[in-house]
Design goal:
heterodimer, A: alpha/beta, six-stranded mixed β-sheet, four-stranded antiparallel β-sheet, 8 helices, 10 strands, B: mainly alpha, MetI-like fold, 12 helices
């Protein structure tokens, strides 16, 4: 197995309180690894440490076998990109979509900005007409597509997804999830996705880790979960909860 | 022509960066146009600036020309606003004085706003000891009353327009640094700045191109509201003899010389007073309007 991401003994503390207490996991190239847990379980913090946005961690994080430090180089970000949770907060309010998308290309002095911006928009199925609009002129789903396009424009190998659908309407959630699944297949991307929603993780990922109180209490494959093979009580609770939510939701839909 | 621009700017499907930028500006203008007080302010300011710029054409007399036989004359057809203690035409002096006073104010703003923005944004973004150093310097300047500090600076340099501009600028920048820093602190941790981090952009690039532009609207509002106090400080320095020197016609200095006969020949002091009042009020109106349009926190 070709390991893309290797995390071992990851600990993250904000001051005296330790938020993540020793997390280990591997993600194979081209795979999707889901991290599921309740709010405050430390799952997003793990993702931000992977992205280099959190500098209070210790342990080992390696991409393609190369350990990374607290501060990341520009080259790191050509390989690893992130999609944030809230599409209303992750796009610069005073910049056009064009400006937001071209920033990576300007910083890294790549040519053909016009072509690449247009291709990125096409990649996430946005019409070219949104290019010179401002974020407030777009809907939530369109904004999240822009955020995905911004990550893709770097032509990364790893995409870190921080609850990419939780701020969206249910109907739009499915659209964005399908888009993400499609992109992974087409571009051969590796995903690490964080969500509190087990159904979303199970839809997109083959493997997942369940986090509770800063520890990864269980790692299992989606198939094992479906077959009822979860061993840790917290995983079972989450699974039961998402099942009961589905049955409650079903008649309404 | 104008309606073409209107449809072009308000087009939701902009086709170029330029069109999107103009659309944004045009919407701000439309919102500002809907505010009558702001428009009154803007009209007065534009009129005053135009009068000051066109002073050599409009002024009926040379502002320094003395006519000692006609001292302290009442307003008449020949001298619409009367003459001062040396028989100089007050209307001409008022028009030329606008150049000095407004020129000082504009010079101060051009010096102060970018400085305050830079200091505040850098302090707020980098935090730590950079923040501590810059903000303590700011506190030192804030600790003294503005006019007193400006007086001290001018006295230490030499009385005159340039040193007055420098002195007012030195005392006026700390509030802007404070505002820019406060704005930066709220912007610094947002997801969209984190996203820019993930392009590999340097901290300087992030401050200059992503953080600072978001501080500009509240700074513009503050500058406009501050204009009146800068004008009054400039006039006060002139009044105290520390600003523009005679025979240069400056509104504050004009009032200062007129104070000796303010009860008997009130019109000598009245017109510069009204000029200062009008322009200060106009800037306040415009600032209020701009705040409604530009500052999202107000709505």
């Amino acid at each position: 197995m070709n390991t893309m991401i290797d995390v071992a003994g990851l600990r993250i503390a904000f001051g005296a309180s330790e938020v993540v207490k020793g997390v280990d996991f591997n993600v194979a190239r081209g795979a999707c690894f889901g991290i599921v847990g309740e709010s405050g379980s430390g799952k997003s913090t793990v993702l931000r440490a992977l992205a280099g946005l959190n500098r209070d961690w210790s342990g080992r994080i390696a991409f393609e076998g190369t350990p990374v430090g607290l501060k990341r180089s520009g080259a790191f970000y050509t390989k690893v990109q992130m999609v944030f949770q809230d599409p209303f907060g992750s796009l610069h309010p005073a910049q056009t979509i064009d400006r937001i998308l071209s920033e990576f290309l300007l910083v890294n002095r790549t040519g053909d900005i016009d072509g690449r911006v247009n291709r990125a928009l096409a990649e996430v199925a946005l019409p070219p007409s949104v290019r010179f609009r401002f974020p407030h002129q777009l809907s939530g789903g369109q904004r999240q597509r822009v955020a995905i396009a911004r990550a893709l424009i770097a032509e990364p190998e790893v995409l870190l997804l921080d609850e990419p659908t939780s701020a969206l309407d249910v109907s739009v959630q499915a659209e964005v999830l399908n888009l993400l699944a499609d992109l992974r297949r087409r571009l051969g991307l590796t995903y690490v996705m964080v969500s509190h929603n087990l159904a979303v993780i199970a839809h997109l990922c083959e493997h997942m880790g369940v986090m509770q109180h800063g520890e990864m209490v269980e790692q299992l494959s989606t198939r094992t979960l479906r077959e009822g093979g979860a061993t840790h009580p917290h995983t079972r609770d989450l699974a039961a909860l998402s099942l009961s939510l589905e049955t409650v939701d079903a008649p309404a839909v | 022509m104008l309606s073409d621009f209107r449809t072009w700017a308000l087009d939701d499907n902009a086709n170029s960066r330029r069109q999107a930028a103009w659309g944004r500006r045009y919407r701000v203008w439309l919102a500002l146009k809907g505010n009558p007080l702001a428009m009154i302010g803007l009209v007065i300011i534009v009129a005053c600036v135009a009068l000051a710029v066109l002073a050599p054409v409009l002024a009926p007399y040379d502002p320094a020309m003395q006519e000692l036989g006609n001292r302290l004359a009442k307003p008449s057809v020949a001298h619409p606003l009367g003459t001062d203690e040396l028989g100089r035409d007050i209307l001409s002096r008022l028009l030329y004085g606008g150049r000095v006073t407004l020129g000082m104010v504009i010079a101060v703003v051009v010096l102060v706003a970018p400085l305050g923005l830079a200091v505040g944004a850098v302090a707020g973004y980098f935090g730590g000891w950079v923040d501590t150093c810059l903000m303590r310097v700011t506190d030192v300047f804030l600790a003294f009353p503005r006019l007193i500090l400006a007086l001290a600076f001018v006295a230490a340099l030499s009385p005159g327009v340039q040193s007055a501009i420098l002195a007012i600028a030195l005392t006026a920048w700390p509030p802007y640094a404070r505002i820019a820093r406060a704005e930066t602190l709220t912007i610094r941790g947002t997801d969209f700045i984190e996203a820019v981090h993930m392009t590999g952009a340097s901290s300087w690039r992030i401050v200059a191109r992503h953080v600072a532009p978001l501080c500009v609207p509240s700074l513009i509002v503050r500058v406009t509201l501050d204009m009146s106090s800068i004008i009054i400080t400039a006039a006060s320095l002139g009044f105290l003899g520390m600003g523009a020197q005679p025979p240069s016609p400056e509104w504050g200095a004009m009032i200062a010389t007129a104070k000796r006969f303010i009860l008997d020949q009130y019109w000598v002091a009245l017109s510069p007073c009204i000029a200062i009042l009008m322009i200060s009020l106009a800037f306040n109106f415009l600032g209020d309007g701009l705040r409604d349009v530009l500052d999202p926190k107000q709505s």
